[in-house]
Amino acid sequence: MAAPRILILGPPGAGKGTQSSNIAEAYGVEHVTTGDALRGNKEMDISDMDTEYDTPGAYMDAGDLVPDKVVNAIVDEALSQADGFVLDGYPRNLDQAEELEDMTDLDVILSLDVSREELVDRLTGRRVCDDCGANYHVEFSPPEEDGVCDDCGGDLIQRDDDNEESVRNRLDVFDENTQPVIAHYEDDDAFVAIDGEQTPDEVWADIEAAIDARVE
Ligand code: AP5
């Protein structure tokens, strides 16, 4: 089986990061995530790119999109080095979708559906390991010891953009910019909608079945 090229779409908090980790492990592909790449470069000086703010972090903390030229360059570089991938967090608008079409073909396009109020609960309760990036939720998947990562013992922190105001803005930005991307892919043979409100294990079972049905 050739290493699959998988795109995972869905609103903030739909479980893209959670399920991308499963996909990367099960299929031996690279997890290419613009969110993590940008968080690793929050203070990068982009003032020479004629942008509204001088760093990616200023856009992210407000829940707004980082300018396309910054993100397109990150994805192009990452995909050119990957032998199979799960792409998470891109494309987030139709211009980015057009850029992606010039970069690669896709074998599977997954779209996770979750209602808005569930998304707010998931994101405001999320905690992330500062060291290894593992994801927890204070109610839905708490760590064994409060504030400590089960996997590596690192500190669990709340992301700067997981406060309620920023979360609601991220969901508005998604409705305006990224819903049209989902509509754009809906008629593609590789597209499959997944019910993201099930338990993480049930979501994973549906994703695995969808990938196996589309990749030989
Ligand atoms: P990014 O990091 O991509 O954030 P996001 O899209 O808002 O997605 P999240 O990581 O918040 O959610 P997720 O779907 O991965 O959910 P998770 O698995 O963690 O982007 C951050 C920012 O970077 C953007 O706002 C923007 O500024 C910038 N950016 C990124 N890409 C860009 C681009 N292409 N262009 C421009 N700007 C860009 O799950 C969430 C929580 O729910 C967790 O606590 C988890 O434990 C829990 N959970 C997961 N699944 C379930 C389940 N089935 N049931 C119950 N709980 C669950």
Structure keywords:
single chain, 216 residues, five-stranded parallel beta sheet, binds BIS(adenosine)-5'-pentaphosphate
Question: What do you see in this structure?
Answer:
- This protein has eight helices and eight strands.
- The chain has helices at 16-27, 34-39, 56-62, 68-81, 94-103, 116-124, 164-185, 200-214; strands spanning 5-9, 30-33, 85-88, 108-113, 126-129, 135-137, 156-157, 191-195.
- α1 (16-27) crosses α8 (200-214), α4 (68-81) packs parallel to α5 and α6 crosses α7.
- The longest helix is centred in the last third of the chain and has 22 residues, at 164-185.
- The chain binds BIS(adenosine)-5'-pentaphosphate.
- BIS(adenosine)-5'-pentaphosphate binds next to α1, α2, α3, α6 and β6.
Question: How would you briefly describe this protein structure?
Answer:
With 216 residues, the protein is of the alpha/beta class.
Give me the secondary-structure topology.
Layout: E1 5-9, H1 16-27, E2 30-33, H2 34-39, H3 56-62, H4 68-81, E3 85-88, H5 94-103, E4 108-113, H6 116-124, E5 126-129, E6 135-137, E7 156-157, H7 164-185, E8 191-195, H8 200-214
Parallel strand pairs: 1-3, 1-4, 2-3, 4-8
Antiparallel strand pairs: 5-6, 5-7
Helix pairs in contact: 1-8, 4-5, 6-7
The structure holds BIS(adenosine)-5'-pentaphosphate.
- The number of distinct β-strands equals 8
Strand content: 15-25%
Give the count of helical stretches.
Answer: 8
Alpha carbon gap, first and last residue: 6 Å
* Spans of at least 5 consecutive residues with low confidence: none
Named once each, the bound ligands are: BIS(adenosine)-5'-pentaphosphate
What strand line-up does the widest sheet have? 2-3-1-4-8
The average pLDDT value, as a whole number, equals 94
| Helix/strand order | EHEHHHEHEHEEEHEH
- For the CA atoms, what is the radius of gyration? 17 Å
Helix percentage? 40-55%
Basic shape: globular
